[in-house]
Amino acid sequence: MNEIINQIKPKMQKAIDSLAHEFNKIRTGRANPSILDSVKIDYYGNPTPINQAANISVEEGRTLAISPWDKSLIGEIEKAIMASDLGLNPSTSGDLIRLTMPALTEETRQEYIKQARNEAENSRISIRNTRRDANNTAKDQQKAGDFSEDDLKRIEDLVQKETDHFIGLVDAELKQKEEDLIEI
Q1: How far apart are CA 26 and CA 19, in angstroms?
Q2: Can you tell me the distance from the alpha carbon of 4 to that of 27, in angstroms, rounded to the nearest whole number?
Q3: What letter does residue 73 receive in the DSSP assignment?
């Protein structure tokens, strides 16, 4: 019985982790090094995330400073950032690449909020699918005689509590992201 609950928690947590990863890709008006997590450069023939080939820090709230460990990568990093769909233009001065986050227009904010809501809904769907699978497993085990009708009801209630908890986490993450996007 507890086995079913123990199996769904990691699956539901994975949906939350995936949501956080997707939210990091959505740009806000503030600089955040994680926005570059999906940008990869060719580093000795291997596609490598920028954060594994350079130090990325925040300057003045809206500017990222990228300092490559290998200075020959400056051009490669600039090209990768411009080729990404982030809408950022790197500016290089010596050994340092700076990315200034442009202010978001109202239309852009609304588009990003819509994208964030879509990602949140995908996470909710994933969590509900996990609930459905757990309930089906419990029903199959009950039919096989592994436990009683009352035990089945208890399991379904526990699964629902976990589902409600994780969907609440999704809603909290979405609310925070929307606040970040609306903030000027």
Answers
A1: 11
A2: 38
A3: G
pTM for the structure as a whole: 0.74
Q: Which long-range contacts (CB under 8 A, 24 or more apart) does 34-40 make?
A: 35/64, 35/86, 36/64, 36/66, 36/81, 36/86, 38/84, 39/80, 39/81, 39/84, 39/86, 40/80
Which residues, 6+ apart, have CB-to-CB distance to 64 below 8 Å? 31, 33, 35, 36, 56, 57, 58, 98, 99, 101
pLDDT at position 1 is: 64
CA distance 5 to 177: 29
Cβ(131)–Cβ(163) below 8 Å = yes
d(CA 148, CA 151): 5
pLDDT tens digits, 142-162? 898 888 899 899 999 999 999
Residues 6 or more apart from 7 whose CB is under 8 A from it?
Answer: 134
Kindly give the parts of the chain with pLDDT less than 70. Answer: 1, 29, 184
